Automatic annotation (TrEMBL), chains A, B:
Pathway: Energy metabolism; sulfur metabolism; Sulfur metabolism. The lineage of its organism: Eukaryota, Metazoa, Ecdysozoa, Arthropoda, Hexapoda. Its EC number is 1.8.3.1. Its main location: mitochondrion. It comes from the Eukaryota. It is found in: Mitochondrion intermembrane space. This is sulfite oxidase.
Amino acid sequence: MKFMWHRLICKNRINLRLLDNICRSASLCAQNNKHETSSPHRLFLGASIATLLAYKLYDYKKNLAFAEQEASDTKAGVAREGLPYYSLQDVSQHCNKDTRIWVTYKEGVYDITDFVEGHPGGDQILLAAGSSVEPFWMLYAVHNNPHVWEILETLRIGNVTKEDAGKLTENMSDPYSTDPKRHPVLHPASVKPFNAETPPFLLVQQFITPNELFYVRNHLPVPKVDPETYELEIEIEGKNKTLSLTLDELKKLPRHTITATIMCAGNRRSEMTKVKPVKGLSWGAAAVGNATWTGVRLRDVLALAGVDEDAAFKHVQFEGLDFDPTGKTYGASIPFWKAASKRGDVILAFEMNGVPIPRDHGFPVRVIVPGTVGARNVKWLARIIVSEKESDSHWQQNDYKGFSPSTDWDTVDFTKSPAIQELPVISAICQPSEGQTVQTDDGHILVKGYAWSGGGQKIVRVDVTLDEGDTWHVANLDHQDTAEPPQHWSWTLWSARIPVKPGTKTVQIWAKAVDSCYNTQPESFKNIWNLRGVLSNAYHRVTVKLQ
Amino acid sequence: MKFMWHRLICKNRINLRLLDNICRSASLCAQNNKHETSSPHRLFLGASIATLLAYKLYDYKKNLAFAEQEASDTKAGVAREGLPYYSLQDVSQHCNKDTRIWVTYKEGVYDITDFVEGHPGGDQILLAAGSSVEPFWMLYAVHNNPHVWEILETLRIGNVTKEDAGKLTENMSDPYSTDPKRHPVLHPASVKPFNAETPPFLLVQQFITPNELFYVRNHLPVPKVDPETYELEIEIEGKNKTLSLTLDELKKLPRHTITATIMCAGNRRSEMTKVKPVKGLSWGAAAVGNATWTGVRLRDVLALAGVDEDAAFKHVQFEGLDFDPTGKTYGASIPFWKAASKRGDVILAFEMNGVPIPRDHGFPVRVIVPGTVGARNVKWLARIIVSEKESDSHWQQNDYKGFSPSTDWDTVDFTKSPAIQELPVISAICQPSEGQTVQTDDGHILVKGYAWSGGGQKIVRVDVTLDEGDTWHVANLDHQDTAEPPQHWSWTLWSARIPVKPGTKTVQIWAKAVDSCYNTQPESFKNIWNLRGVLSNAYHRVTVKLQ
């Protein structure tokens, strides 16, 4: 049988039995591994973290003197003369520290025992222990990189026997082969998984971002879901019964439409990383969009399941239909009050800007948690669990959290920071762009951008300066929703026409926003730097040439 | 009849008929004045604005060349030879621009027509047109200042006739004579009205601030209210019936206790004013306190009056029993959703830290609007109005709002900014204090402070640095309420023990807090400066000497 990722979705549940022997052998070995048992949720590292793997591996390489001598045109996984041959059975015996940890890549056999600690993805690498890294590298395509291959070859201990070579991967297809087509104007931050942002100047052309231009943030391959067989499950902790709703049943509930901005926690990360490198996709300022979402209120669905606003639960967990090679799905949770409150406006959306939600954005059903970081707006929604506990997913526990600027990867303790929910106030200049030559108009330049704040707060002012804050110009708030805080979910589009001194050749434009709590943006990235590069909401600074 | 301010409270309503002829003549003339009709709410300027009057008047003085020649030991209001004499009847004819605007002060007659525009309190001055300024100067004692007297004498045009001299004020007593006694350790920012803060080092000694040490923010004299005759009125716009509740009736409703921090919008103003002068009381970092408040839920009282959470009102207005010489009471409003929501936790409190609320804090009933600026926590509550509109009081409309750093008193338009409600994230270092000599302990110094955020957000981290942000130390959050956001109303007390390099003589300590929305403080006052000096939440910076 050909290994087809999308076939793994049986109705809307993942059928682990369909995972082929490649994945099973990998995960079984990992499950036996002592390293895993202590913190299973740490095993999985988001694709987001994986994207800076190349950087970290390069860093690691610098510490290996012998790597300096080999390198450059190393061909990874090619059979090398003079090295011993091992069968896949031999390799499978080496799946923990006591036996040493071996993996294969194509025809190569590698002892990664001493590398595990330096692996930027942490224990994640142990999923491949005693087996092939290839299914994982297909998922996190950042590994397909000469720097990574170089490091890998420094760990080389042998070759796979001719009989076994290729057997582990012969039925494996690209898990991304069924991803949807995307508009070519989207600017990718990574291709597998697909993550891409809108060109900033397009972002400020209209209050509602068209679906095709809306930024895409995928952690895993896009599942192919049959709306006819789709079912949403709702579990209440402590109750035996699970509520199941088909798409048709869901659509029969009272409909609710909201206009809400969704933003990635890593939006504007590329600016923070200039202070000191951070891990994560190198997003510009356009990992954000504003859309109209139609669906049913989550609180109505919870009420159907017998849970009302006054119930004593603390969290509502979500699981997506997207999953990794071990069958682990994307997951996240939000506080119960937000889920159950009428004022929270959380919906299970099946329409985006008046049409069925496109596959990249969660077809057929996505949770929209307005005012809350994109990561909790779970796409391809499979399951809702009302619980005393947060989701134990990697993305809730060990990602999407803020830390002090002095916390590094040696000192970080993810249990010490809360999962990001409502996002802080932010703004960005979308026009002109960095380095652009701008034609002045009667001694003025036109600056356009967006501003937004989480938690249903409204933008009350945007200030723009061309002289490092000696003079601030109050921008016009051109497009803004009429909803009042704390239910103001949309961004504000703004513009300012600012005088420049005659003869000025270059100006740096700064923008900062103030929200209805009068929270404002921090000035610089230095003092809000964090190792994951999230919450990058310092003043936006854009330098342009004048003509 | 001797003019006794506290006698004006008849039951809990202000009896305008008891206002004596001094005040009546002043207000009647003002009511006839064309300047007032357009914006009645602008007439009243808070004592808070009045406190920097001296500064502005001094500024005005600099523009009057002849003032430079007179000045210094001018005695204001003393009869001056060579000037014409006017009866009070003559003076009363001059109460608008057409007739020129005259006022008296003791035995002096002054033409203030050309000064009105430059008066920092705006149209407020017109209340005295055709009469004496003295009742107002008793209320806003900042006028009793040599700088003010100097300016006044530059406007001198005559003397009050011997027959009339003293008549206007002969029955006038000090409206503050019945204010309560205060603990001598409180540090006054103004005495009449009384405004004072706690010594900062005392603030961080305990999570709950003792009543006697709790900062006091009064806009007017403290009313003396008889709890036996006290009645609270609740009006619903569009309904003819008004609900009245005695204190006993109120206390029969279900009780609700919350622990909440109350903070003045002007807390830490003295730091902002160093960048460029602002108007307002010169508060340090201790115009804040944390207490336990017991009362009844406002939503329960609204329900008694027939208004539930889903009603279509927008605002809930409050009126206090404190009032100015024209009978205008202190007033403010909050959004209806906050007032009516269970999660809003708004209470009508009659106990503070387990005892009846002290007079300075609102005896017998004060609104506690947790997470919201102190100015909306109306004391000596007389009346609640459920409305489509915000309170039209000066303090809601023309005070307690934020503006861009480039907005000055010539360009400000108070209709353009929203009234401050929920406050932004803030922190302060309370120990050591600015300029203090600190004994190091095994090469470390101990820093203590508070942090808080409005809107029910919790403090998730406090960062402290001694090297301008090159190294940030994460403080211990020593005392924090267990309530979860968005119902976390109390401050967090924190401490940090930070190493100092041997031989260091002086360090500047910086502190900044991060709340559960991951909003953080702005770095410097320059870019958040505003003409009223509110929302002063930049990093707190304290320089100390080491021993």
